Every structure is written in structure tokens, then in C-alpha cells.
Amino acid sequence: MRITGNFDDRSISNGGRRLGVGGFGTVYKGFLNVIAVAVKKLNPVEDMPLDKLKVQFDQEIQTLKVDVKSANILLDENLVAKISDFGLTRASAKHTSTTMMTERIVGTRAYMAPEALRGEVTPKSDVFSFGVVLLEILSGLAPANENKEPQLLMEIRYDIDDEDEELTLEDFVDKKMSDWELSQVETIYCLASNCLHDRKNRRPVIKQ
């Protein structure tokens, strides 16, 4: 709350911090370690019917983050994750295409979907990157390591899913995690694996 001036609801032009209002809440300007950031304060949804909530979600601006990675995900004092660094972000209205074609590869390669490496970026590319982040959380490993095989963290799923391999999912769980349940690990891995599907149309959408 301090970084937004206690959610100062006056507009920027009137000396406050409010940047604008969307379907899910109000966006405020804040400063985190002298870096200007945008913070969204979500509206309460406890009493909102699920169908109305879904409609609001579907009407939101569609965003291509392009550079989803663990280094761009910050935790606040309540350990709530906040995505930061929107320098490569592209946004579009709901009714327009969110596919972006580019000849210049942007983003961090260890997190990039196959189609993104070819210059085609869609919201499903962000889903793929999120899958790599989930594997990082699960394993405690870096997304890439030139001194290990496989070099790319995303490729450990081939070892895990190969029945002929001696390694199992449990072998890849972060050794620093002393208290975990296999069912929870399997749930996270299943989601990560779905996000990392080579075919973008087989990946879940981010709102799922």
C-alpha cells in the first residue's frame, strides 16, 4: 500500500496515483525501489456471480506479455505474485487478433515457445513461458544451464515422461523443499506439462 500512497484515489492530473479503472479494479501508479510500476487493486469478487465474473474477464484487454519469466515476477509483503517489466508488452482489444509476427526475436530464449522462436507471438506463447516458470518453482533449477543435460529446463519433461528412464518426477523436486505432497507436485507438473505443449492450440488459456 505504501508504494501507491495508500491507493491515493485522486487522478494523476490532480496529484494522486489513480491511472485508470478497468473491469476488475483500479490501476494506480506506484514506486518500487524508485522504479515506477503500475499496481492494480482488484475489486472484491466474493459476492459476484461466476457468470458475471467470466463476462468481465472476457471483456478485459488481451495482453501479450512476451517476456514472462521468474525474474519478472515479484512477491509483495503478503507473498502475492506481481508480474513486472512490461517493456515488451503488446495489448489489443478483445475483438482484434492478438497474434504478433516479428522478424526480431524478443524475450528470453529459455522461456520461449517454439512458435515464438519463429517470430509468431500469441497469448499461448505466454502460457508456454508460464509453464517454464512452474518447472522452476517445482525443481529449483535455472531455466537454462550450459553445463547440464538437458541444457534447457523445459526438456526435463521428456525424461520424466519416458517410461524407459530411471528418473521420476520425485527426482526433480527441489531439494530445498522439505515438506511436500506428491499429489501437489503432480498437479503442478501436469499444469506445467500442458502449458509446455509444442502445439500452441493444445495449451490451456491463461484464465484457466
UniProtKB/TrEMBL annotation:
It holds the Pfam family Pkinase. One of its GO terms (molecular function) is ATP binding. ATP binds at residue 41. Residues 1-208 form the Protein kinase domain. It comes from the Eukaryota. Keywords: ATP-binding, Kinase, Nucleotide-binding, Receptor, Transferase. This is Interleukin-1 receptor-associated kinase 4.
